[in-house]
DNA sequence: AGCCAGGCTACCG
DNA sequence: CGGTAGCATGGC
């Protein structure tokens, strides 16, 4: 039996600490203390939405522009004209949809008033699906919840740990069942799976 | 020069 | 329910 803990250490040996979630373009290997403030927390949420089916490289361009234009903020995004917002995030693709998603999420984020959202609440927001919700919970709120993405499925299939495409929730339960619920470990594991997926 | 990226919604049978 | 078209740009 191929233990997923063994897969984790192999990935770590091969790729090293990934330093997720990147804040303002910077990674911070083996330091899981981010976000350090609300501003950074919101940036993670925006990045999680913008990176939907999109290369992170393109998301960075959008984040850079939002930062430069000083609208990387929930209230500012809501106050920004749709066309201007679309222009800022254009490199991240699907800009019509994503502009709407950012506004819907900003409204939701403000309504939280500093409280931590539940998974159910996140999923009720238009444009937030399971992976995005779990990424936000794990990386922005340090909740020990495993993020499942296309790379995770591919990895489990390649290692013949699963037969054919199981559901998101089943795969997530698989990890939850076998790993201690530690947000740092979940953070690193998911980041490593993505890194492996990118470099094939 | 295609293919594909750190998905989601809407709609179909 | 599961399956899939459409969304869009930029990197390799």
Number of strands: 0
Structural class: mainly alpha
Query: Unreliable stretches, pLDDT < 50, 5 or more residues?
Result: none
Q: Give the helix level as a range of percent.
A: 55-70%
**What integer is the average pLDDT?**
97
Order of helices and strands: HHHHHHHHHHH
Number of helical segments with 4 or more residues? 11
Shape: globular
Q: How would you sum up the major sheet?
A: none
Span between termini: 23 Å
Could you tell me the strand content as a percent range? under 5%
What Rg, in angstroms, do the CA atoms define? 17 Å
Question: Quick gist of this model?
Answer:
By secondary structure, the protein is mainly alpha-helical. It has 11 helices and no strands.
Keywords summarizing the entry:
200 residues; mainly alpha; globular; DNA-binding
Description:
By secondary structure, this protein is an all-alpha fold. The chain is 61% helix and 0% strand. It has helices at 4-15, 38-50, 56-68, 74-79, 82-89, 95-112, 119-123, 130-140, 150-158, 168-178, 183-198. The chain is globular and about 50 Å long. The two termini are 23 Å apart. The model has no long low-confidence stretch (mean pLDDT 97). The structure holds a DNA duplex (13 and 12 nucleotides).
Topology:
Elements: H1 4-15, H2 38-50, H3 56-68, H4 74-79, H5 82-89, H6 95-112, H7 119-123, H8 130-140, H9 150-158, H10 168-178, H11 183-198
Helix pairs in contact: 1-11, 2-3, 2-6, 2-8, 5-6, 9-11
The protein binds a DNA duplex (13 and 12 nucleotides) through α2, α3, α6, α8 and α11.
